[in-house]
Amino acid sequence: GWAAMQPNFDKSFVGLTGPAFGVLLEHGRIGELARATYSRHPAYLRPDAPLMPATFLASAGYAFGYTLERPGDTPLKSLGLENASTLDAEIGFNFYGELPVAGASLTATTRIADMFEKTGARAGRMLFWKAVTDFRDDSGRLAADFFTTSVLPERMPAMKGSHASGARRYA
Question: Which of 35, 104, 130, 166 could tie 100 with a disulfide, CB 3.0–4.6 Å?
C-alpha cells in the first residue's frame, strides 16, 4: 500500500507545473511505434513524413522528459509519487489542427489539473491525480494535449487469476 510511501496529497499542488521539455518527432520512433502497435495505416508508415500516432504522446514523458512517477528533479517530485505503482484510470488526447509529422519539434509541459480521493470496498482509500501535458509547436500554438488520471490505492485488490489468488507464475 501507499502508507509507507507517504505521498504528498496536498490539494494546493493543483496547478503545479513541471519544466518544459522538447519532444522531437523522430521518423524512426514513429515507425517503431506504428509497427509495435501493428498499425497498417499508411499515414503512419509513409517514408517521407509519417504522421505521429496519437499514442506517441503517451510515451513522450518517458522518452524525453518526466512523468508523475518518474519526476526527476522537477517540481512534480514534491508530490511524493516517485517510483509509485499507480494505476491508470483514464488517458486521452486532444488535437488542435493537423497531426504533427516526423521532423516536427514540440515543447511539452505537464501540470496537475486536479486531485481528489475516493474510498472503495476492496482498494480502501484511493488518491487520484489528474495531469495534463500540453504540446506546443515551434510557433507556440497548442498542437495537442495528453491527459491522464493516475490512481494510488491504499491496497491493491487481488485480481481474478492473479498471483495473489493462487495462480502460478512462470518465468
Answer: 104
CA–CA gap between residue 50 and residue 70 (Å, rounded): 29
Q: Which residues pair with 131 in a beta bridge?
A: 112, 148
* Each residue's pLDDT tens digit, 107-117: 999 999 999 99
Strands of the sheet containing 142-153, edge to edge, are 21-24, 105-120, 124-136, 142-153, 87-95
Name the pTM for this structure: 0.83
Confidence check: pLDDT of 169 > 50? no
Q: What is the distance between the alpha carbons of residues 107 and 83, in angstroms, rounded to a whole number? A: 25
User: pLDDT confidence of 122, banded at 50, 70, 90?
Assistant: confident
Report, as an integer, the average pLDDT of 94-103: 90
Residues in the chain: 171
